[in-house]
Write a structure and sequence with these properties.
196 residues; mainly alpha; 8 helices; 65% helix; globular
Protein backbone atom coordinates (compact mmCIF):
# COMPACT_ATOMS: atom_id res chain seq x y z
CA UNK A 1 0.00 0.00 0.00
CA UNK A 2 2.72 2.49 0.97
CA UNK A 3 4.69 1.62 -2.14
CA UNK A 4 1.61 2.39 -4.23
CA UNK A 5 1.17 5.73 -2.46
CA UNK A 6 4.79 6.73 -3.16
CA UNK A 7 4.38 5.75 -6.81
CA UNK A 8 1.23 7.86 -7.13
CA UNK A 9 2.86 10.88 -5.48
CA UNK A 10 5.94 10.40 -7.64
CA UNK A 11 3.75 10.37 -10.74
CA UNK A 12 1.95 13.53 -9.67
CA UNK A 13 5.26 15.29 -9.07
CA UNK A 14 6.54 14.15 -12.47
CA UNK A 15 3.49 15.78 -14.03
CA UNK A 16 3.43 18.96 -11.95
CA UNK A 17 7.18 19.67 -11.87
CA UNK A 18 8.02 18.87 -15.48
CA UNK A 19 7.87 22.54 -16.46
CA UNK A 20 10.61 23.63 -14.03
CA UNK A 21 13.48 22.47 -16.19
CA UNK A 22 16.00 19.67 -15.82
CA UNK A 23 18.73 21.60 -14.00
CA UNK A 24 16.34 23.15 -11.48
CA UNK A 25 14.79 19.76 -10.73
CA UNK A 26 18.24 18.20 -10.41
CA UNK A 27 19.02 20.77 -7.70
CA UNK A 28 15.72 19.98 -5.94
CA UNK A 29 16.45 16.26 -6.10
CA UNK A 30 19.98 16.67 -4.72
CA UNK A 31 18.71 18.91 -1.91
CA UNK A 32 16.01 16.35 -1.10
CA UNK A 33 18.54 13.53 -0.82
CA UNK A 34 20.83 15.50 1.48
CA UNK A 35 17.91 16.69 3.61
CA UNK A 36 16.51 13.20 4.09
CA UNK A 37 19.92 11.80 4.94
CA UNK A 38 20.67 14.46 7.56
CA UNK A 39 17.16 14.28 8.98
CA UNK A 40 17.52 10.54 9.58
CA UNK A 41 21.18 10.30 10.57
CA UNK A 42 21.20 13.31 12.90
CA UNK A 43 18.29 12.27 15.10
CA UNK A 44 20.30 10.05 17.51
CA UNK A 45 22.38 13.17 18.24
CA UNK A 46 19.50 15.64 18.21
CA UNK A 47 17.55 13.70 20.84
CA UNK A 48 20.43 14.04 23.31
CA UNK A 49 19.70 17.77 23.55
CA UNK A 50 16.31 17.02 25.10
CA UNK A 51 15.47 15.56 28.52
CA UNK A 52 14.35 11.94 28.62
CA UNK A 53 10.85 12.97 29.62
CA UNK A 54 10.20 14.45 26.16
CA UNK A 55 11.94 11.76 24.12
CA UNK A 56 8.65 10.56 22.70
CA UNK A 57 7.36 9.49 19.27
CA UNK A 58 6.39 13.12 18.67
CA UNK A 59 9.96 14.28 19.26
CA UNK A 60 11.22 11.70 16.79
CA UNK A 61 8.62 12.78 14.24
CA UNK A 62 9.28 16.50 14.67
CA UNK A 63 13.04 16.04 15.01
CA UNK A 64 13.57 14.07 11.82
CA UNK A 65 11.14 16.12 9.74
CA UNK A 66 12.32 19.39 11.27
CA UNK A 67 16.00 18.82 10.55
CA UNK A 68 15.22 17.66 7.02
CA UNK A 69 13.00 20.68 6.36
CA UNK A 70 15.59 23.09 7.77
CA UNK A 71 18.39 21.59 5.66
CA UNK A 72 16.21 21.70 2.55
CA UNK A 73 15.29 25.35 3.09
CA UNK A 74 18.93 26.34 3.64
CA UNK A 75 20.27 24.41 0.64
CA UNK A 76 17.40 25.65 -1.54
CA UNK A 77 18.15 29.26 -0.63
CA UNK A 78 21.89 28.78 -1.23
CA UNK A 79 21.23 27.26 -4.64
CA UNK A 80 18.92 30.11 -5.60
CA UNK A 81 21.44 32.65 -4.35
CA UNK A 82 24.62 31.32 -5.93
CA UNK A 83 23.50 29.04 -8.78
CA UNK A 84 20.42 30.79 -10.13
CA UNK A 85 22.21 31.47 -13.41
CA UNK A 86 22.63 27.75 -14.00
CA UNK A 87 18.85 27.33 -14.19
CA UNK A 88 18.83 29.39 -17.38
CA UNK A 89 21.23 27.08 -19.19
CA UNK A 90 19.72 25.19 -22.06
CA UNK A 91 19.83 21.41 -22.08
CA UNK A 92 19.13 19.10 -25.03
CA UNK A 93 15.45 18.70 -25.86
CA UNK A 94 15.55 14.95 -25.22
CA UNK A 95 16.90 15.57 -21.70
CA UNK A 96 14.13 18.05 -20.99
CA UNK A 97 11.49 15.74 -22.41
CA UNK A 98 12.47 12.56 -20.62
CA UNK A 99 14.94 13.54 -17.89
CA UNK A 100 12.78 16.21 -16.27
CA UNK A 101 9.75 13.93 -15.63
CA UNK A 102 12.06 11.23 -14.29
CA UNK A 103 13.65 13.66 -11.84
CA UNK A 104 10.22 14.96 -10.86
CA UNK A 105 9.13 11.40 -10.13
CA UNK A 106 12.24 10.74 -8.04
CA UNK A 107 11.70 13.92 -6.01
CA UNK A 108 8.12 12.92 -5.20
CA UNK A 109 9.02 9.28 -4.57
CA UNK A 110 11.88 9.95 -2.16
CA UNK A 111 10.14 12.74 -0.24
CA UNK A 112 6.86 10.84 0.13
CA UNK A 113 8.74 7.73 1.29
CA UNK A 114 10.55 9.79 3.91
CA UNK A 115 7.34 11.40 5.19
CA UNK A 116 5.59 8.01 5.38
CA UNK A 117 8.59 6.56 7.22
CA UNK A 118 8.59 9.34 9.83
CA UNK A 119 4.82 9.20 10.36
CA UNK A 120 5.21 5.49 11.10
CA UNK A 121 6.65 6.43 14.51
CA UNK A 122 3.48 8.20 15.65
CA UNK A 123 1.30 6.27 18.13
CA UNK A 124 -1.87 6.63 16.06
CA UNK A 125 -0.05 5.04 13.14
CA UNK A 126 2.15 2.59 15.02
CA UNK A 127 -0.67 1.16 17.12
CA UNK A 128 -3.65 1.99 14.93
CA UNK A 129 -2.54 1.10 11.41
CA UNK A 130 0.64 -0.94 11.66
CA UNK A 131 -1.21 -4.17 12.42
CA UNK A 132 -3.45 -4.00 9.37
CA UNK A 133 -2.71 -6.28 6.45
CA UNK A 134 -2.72 -3.41 3.94
CA UNK A 135 0.07 -1.36 5.57
CA UNK A 136 3.65 -2.63 5.32
CA UNK A 137 6.05 -0.12 6.84
CA UNK A 138 9.08 -2.07 5.65
CA UNK A 139 8.33 -0.58 2.23
CA UNK A 140 8.99 2.97 3.45
CA UNK A 141 12.09 1.75 5.30
CA UNK A 142 13.49 0.38 2.05
CA UNK A 143 12.88 3.74 0.39
CA UNK A 144 14.70 5.68 3.11
CA UNK A 145 17.51 3.11 3.33
CA UNK A 146 18.15 3.39 -0.41
CA UNK A 147 18.29 7.20 -0.14
CA UNK A 148 20.70 7.16 2.81
CA UNK A 149 22.94 4.53 1.21
CA UNK A 150 23.09 6.56 -2.00
CA UNK A 151 24.19 9.69 -0.13
CA UNK A 152 26.73 7.70 1.90
CA UNK A 153 28.19 6.23 -1.28
CA UNK A 154 28.40 9.58 -3.06
CA UNK A 155 29.87 11.43 -0.08
CA UNK A 156 32.33 8.65 0.86
CA UNK A 157 32.00 9.62 4.52
CA UNK A 158 32.78 6.23 6.01
CA UNK A 159 33.37 2.66 4.91
CA UNK A 160 30.64 1.18 7.09
CA UNK A 161 28.01 3.62 5.81
CA UNK A 162 25.32 1.09 4.75
CA UNK A 163 25.61 -0.86 8.01
CA UNK A 164 25.39 2.30 10.10
CA UNK A 165 22.45 3.56 8.05
CA UNK A 166 20.60 0.28 8.51
CA UNK A 167 21.23 0.28 12.26
CA UNK A 168 19.84 3.79 12.74
CA UNK A 169 16.88 3.27 10.39
CA UNK A 170 15.95 0.03 12.16
CA UNK A 171 16.21 1.78 15.53
CA UNK A 172 13.98 4.63 14.34
CA UNK A 173 11.35 2.34 12.87
CA UNK A 174 11.30 0.03 15.91
CA UNK A 175 10.87 2.89 18.38
CA UNK A 176 14.17 2.28 20.16
CA UNK A 177 14.87 5.99 20.59
CA UNK A 178 11.72 6.64 22.58
CA UNK A 179 11.64 3.45 24.63
CA UNK A 180 12.75 3.50 28.29
CA UNK A 181 16.42 4.33 28.69
CA UNK A 182 17.36 0.81 29.74
CA UNK A 183 16.66 -0.25 26.15
CA UNK A 184 19.49 1.12 24.10
CA UNK A 185 19.77 1.51 20.35
CA UNK A 186 20.93 -1.73 18.72
CA UNK A 187 24.63 -2.08 18.01
CA UNK A 188 24.20 -5.01 15.65
CA UNK A 189 22.91 -4.94 12.11
CA UNK A 190 19.59 -6.58 11.38
CA UNK A 191 18.11 -7.09 7.96
CA UNK A 192 14.85 -5.37 7.15
CA UNK A 193 12.04 -7.93 7.04
CA UNK A 194 9.94 -8.07 3.89
CA UNK A 195 6.71 -8.46 5.83
CA UNK A 196 5.56 -7.17 9.17
Amino acid sequence: MLFTITLIIGGLCAWRLSNQGFIALWAHFFNSLVSIYLGIMSYPTVRNFFPESVQTPWLQFIGTLGVAALVFIITHQLVNLYLAGAFRLETPAIVEKFGTPILGFLVGYTLSGFVLFTTGSLPIVRYGLADTSTVNFSESRQNVLFTCNLVSHLSRQHIDGPENNLRIINALSEGVYFLPTNKKAPSTVNTIPTNQ
